[in-house]
Every structure is written in structure tokens, then in C-alpha cells.
Amino acid sequence: MHVLVLCGGKSAEHEVSFLSAASVLDTLDPAKYRVSVIGIQRDGSLYPPEATVDRLKLDSPEKFQFPSGENWVCLLADLKPETVFPVLHGPFGEDGTIQGILEVLDIPYVGAGVWGSAVGMNKIHSKKILLEEGLPVLPFISIPQTEWQERAEDFLKLVAGKLHYPVFVKPANLGSSIGINKSASRDDLIQHIEAAFRYDDFILVEQGIEAREIETSVLGNSRPEVSIAGEIIPSREFYTYEAKYLDQGSQLLIPAPLSGKEMKRVQELSIATFKALQLEGMARIDFLMDKKTGQFWVNEPNTIPGFTQISMYPKLWEASGLSYPDLLDKLIDLGLERYRRRSRFSVER
Ligand SMILES: Nc1ncnc2c1ncn2[C@@H]1O[C@H](COP(=O)(O)OP(=O)(O)O)[C@@H](O)[C@H]1O
Ligand SMILES: [Mg+2]
After folding, report:
1. What is the spatial distance between Cα 178 and Cα 203, in angstroms, rounded to a whole number?
2. Which residue from 121, 114, 28, 37 is spatially nearest to 332, judged by alpha carbons?
3. What is the strand order of the sheet 140-144 is part of?
4. Into which CATH architecture does domain 211-342 fall?
């Protein structure tokens, strides 16, 4: 089967994407798959093949094809791989845009579809849907930039009435903790709101809690399965960009030290979240567990989680009895299953 791996991309997780992609390439079974790789630059254009090879730092790049061309969308249309594995984190990859291109080109792909990707990436809309489904989401207030400019004081009153310090301020559509700040006072809050608007037209202000960071891996389409949960112990005050990618100090605990009852609860919430957001293929579901009360809050889904050898998503599956190569086979099968199912829908009246 011809599988094409997409990596790089227009996002702050550009470099991380190459690390994830290199692990995926190392793991895909050459007896089953003929693999080609397309690297996308930070400006959205195609990398020359040598540049993609350099960034991936592969032991044996000769095992893979690195097609060249003017434009990667045209290249995809020409190559028509049997399936695409988008290993692109963050905006322009994880948010439904690339999935839309693949739908239009009629190419099967791994992971959530257009809608699940777009909603999964959007912290405001995903939380609204989870609330509607009765899932536990921390109280929050969303603020559109135009309205902030017109009536900031109203929003500050709203925050004061509904939340208490500390609060977290986040751009609606990003990842990697970029633009996220913890505000301890009204002055902080104003400054952090202005900062978050540098990244998005929509932001949210969310109730802050003292939390343990618990994560699970979900796999499947209409009958998703969940791994055991893991825990992250961040090296900083919270799980910032530095703690995620720059420090060596953050720790992964697998399994998370939870009681049997807690483990079961977080697993049930994971499946319910995956279904509520109509996700497909895979997602890592992140929770905040209140250190005082033990209550679980759904923080966010990640529809294209990290895929390096030491990333939580494949590690949790390994610890749950599913090896990394078998996981990749399953993900590809699930993408093909979705494609076949959807191609049966009628377009006739
Ligand atoms: N409401 C909150 N209370 C406490 N910590 C939070 C809260 N929201 C976010 N955090 C901290 O900030 C980190 C990043 O926030 P998150 O919403 O996961 O954004 P991203 O999509 O960038 O990962 C979390 O992993 C956690 O450490
Ligand atoms: Mg997160």
C-alpha cells in the first residue's frame, strides 16, 4: 500500500512534527507499505526533498520516496497515494484544513475528519459541545476581539462574577501552550487578554485550578477504545511551551498513579469526549484532575497527538498491550474504513 506522510507545516510545532514523522517512518512496516514523504515549510510551500531528508534525520532515507514538485497539493493530486498520514500538529494540519484538501482530492487519511479536527482544535466550540453533553468542563468565558475593543469593562465584570483568580487565558485555536497565561489579578488578566489576541480573534478566560495532568489515548471510529491513563509532571508552574519542548525536566508516569475507580472514571470520560466531538481514528484526551477534590475536568482533545518514541499517545497504547507498529496499522485501517463508509453515502436525491 502506498502511504504518504505529511510533515512540517505552518505551525509552532513544525520541528516537533518532524520528530513525530521520523518515528512513524521508522515504524511503518516496509513489507506492508511503500512510503513517500512530503515536508511542508513554515510558509506553507513544499520543501525540496533534500531539506525534508535533513530535517527528519533518518538512519536510512533510501527506504522512502521524497517526491519533488512545485506545489504539494498538486503533487498529492498527481501521486494519489492510497492513504495519507498527516503528522502535522496545530493549525493548518490538525484543524480540518488539510483534511478538507484530502476530502476534495478524494484520498483516504488517518485521524479525525474535517469537522472533528476543526472542533477539536477550537477550545471554545469543543467546550460548548462537551457542556451540552453533560461532560465536566471548567467554567469559562469567551471573548471576541471586536467586542473586547468595544466593551472590555463588561467582560471584566463577567469574569469577576463567574470566575475567581487565578484564571487561565487562552487563544481559541492554538496548541503547545502558545499565548496561554495564568493571571493572578485584574491587571494580569488585562495584559494576558491583550497578549492572547495576538494569536487569535477569539480567546477564552477559564477558571484555574491546582491540577494533576492526566491523559489517555483513544483509538477507533464508531466503537472507540481507550488506553490506560498516564500522568505528566510538568517541569514548570504549569505545562508551558518550555516545559513541553525545551526543558528535559517534565516527567511521564505510565500508568498514572490513580485508584481503580479513578482510572475507570477517566477512561469513561475519554470515550464520552471522543464520541461527543465525533472524533475518528485517534485522539489523546487531556484532563485536569483537581488536586483538592479529585474531580476530573476534560481539558482538551488532541486529534494529531505527538508520535515520537517517547510521546504519550503511542506509549499509553504500548502499556495497554498494543505495540507501536500495530497501532500504525490500525490507524491506517481506520482511515480506510471511514473512507469506504463515507463513499457509500448517496449524492442523489
Ligand atoms: N484551567 C486550568 N487550570 C490549571 N491549569 C491549566 C488550566 N488550563 C490550562 N492549564 C495549564 O496550561 C497547559 C496548556 O493548556 P491547554 O489548554 O492544554 O492548551 P494547549 O492546547 O496549548 O496544550 C495545561 O497543560 C495546564 O498545565
Ligand atoms: Mg494541552
Report:
1. 12
2. 28
3. 140-144, 202-207, 167-171, 181-183
4. 2-Layer Sandwich (3.30)
What pLDDT is stored for residue 305 in this prediction? 95
Q: May I ask the CATH architecture of the domain 2-109?
A: 3-Layer(aba) Sandwich (3.40)
297: cell is: 475536568
Residue 123 CA, closest ligand 1 atom number: 17
Residues of the chain with CATH 3.40.50.20: 2-109
Ligand 1 and 324: CB distance under 6 A? no
Q: Ligand 1 in contact with 168 (CB < 6 A)? A: yes
213 bridge partner residues? 232, 288
Using one digit for the tens of pLDDT, what is the confidence trace for 179-213?
899 999 999 999 999 999 999 999 999 999 999 99
Nearest atom, ligand 1, residue 297 CA: 1
Bigger pLDDT: 135 vs 308: 135
What percent of the chain has a predicted confidence (pLDDT) above 70?
Answer: 99
Query: Domain 139-207 belongs to what topology?
Result: Dna Ligase; domain 1 (3.30.1490)
The string of pLDDT tens digits covering residues 71-110 is 999 999 999 999 999 999 988 889 999 999 999 999 999 9
